[in-house]
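Readers outside the structure-tokenisation community will struggle with the description of the input data as it stands. Showing the layout once, in full, would remove most of the difficulty. For illustration, here is how one protein appears when written out as sequence plus structure tokens:
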Amino acid sequence: MEWYYVKDGESRGPVNRDELTRLAGNGELRPEDLVWNSTMGEEWARADSVVGLFTGRQHELQLRAPGQDGRDLREPGAIKLIDPVKYAWRRMVLILFQPFEIGKWFALGFCAWLASLGESGGSFNTGSGGSGGGGGDSDFSVDGMLTGMEEAWAPVREFFQQYGGIVIGLVVVLVLIGLAAGIVFLWLRSRGKFMLLDNVLRNKAEVTEPWQTWKQHANSLFRWSLGYGIICLVITLGLLALAWPLVIKPCVEARAYVPEMAGGIAMIILLFLVFGTVTFYISRFLNDFIIPIMYRHDLTATEAWRKFLGLYHSNSGRFLTYGLFMLVLQMCAGMAILAAILVTCFIAGCLMGIPYLGAVLLLPVTVFFRLYGVEYLAQYGGDFVVGAAKGDDEPDA
């Protein structure tokens, strides 16, 4: 593919991608210079918006040993957490604000809305139950609680004797509807994640084309996510079931608090913490790395995991630190959003609560985090530089 670039106010070219990369590497082509090829339509773009052109930025060539190609990993000291923040921020500004196009925002906002469809919001539910009134300590005794439950169960039992079939039928219907909705949301969310990634990497604002182009990859992601979700559900139910032999049963049999209960509660909490940490990292890696690898190398979700785990095994400490740093970045983003809500006297909060409109308003945050994972992964070089898809405007590494 032929490229053209603007240098010192005049258009130059055509050159091929390798020559363009060489110019970027030796400093002749600067990040702020404009480039163009036939896939960009009528608009020129900044050179640093071409993913992979400034991979590792201009110092990458010095990080490679003579004769090595881009498949080799960079030196360990080159993997940074802060540098990708700058690159992701700069590209986010370029995509959304240079120039600012309201139509582009609404198209990208639709993709972002699909990519988060059915996911929980940013608020946290703290399950702090209410107190039981003004009684003494006996109100909170296990024996008193069990007696109260037995007394309360009597009318419930009578109700179920009369309407139990109807209630069970309604519950089954509602559960089936909820499961069906969850599966549909997961399918749409998988499609939306690839649509958003494709638009962000190519600096486009399209809906129909990426919806069709990436359907097979999205379906693979959907199947993997569905299987993973079922496994997580089974494990969660299993951990909850442990509460019966470890906590509830000893108290019921003794009709009082027993010392063994404290150990059981501690064990269940510890297991949930371990499980929650593992699922956090799996979800983080899936969204930030697996989807881009699928996109770049035309892989299924399982194949992308296999490729990523080869890198993870030799860099596990860095990736674990990445997850913690992402939490810090998300906290900063949350505080910025909260500040915007307070400054606008909660008007921004009300607008963000509207699903699609909220996705549009939060595009700077969404696009930044989408790019940050890609920029971080690109530091490992070679196969992990996620630019345009194969067959598009970047050759395969």
Notes: The radius of gyration is 27 Å. Residues 81-120+138-384 form one domain.
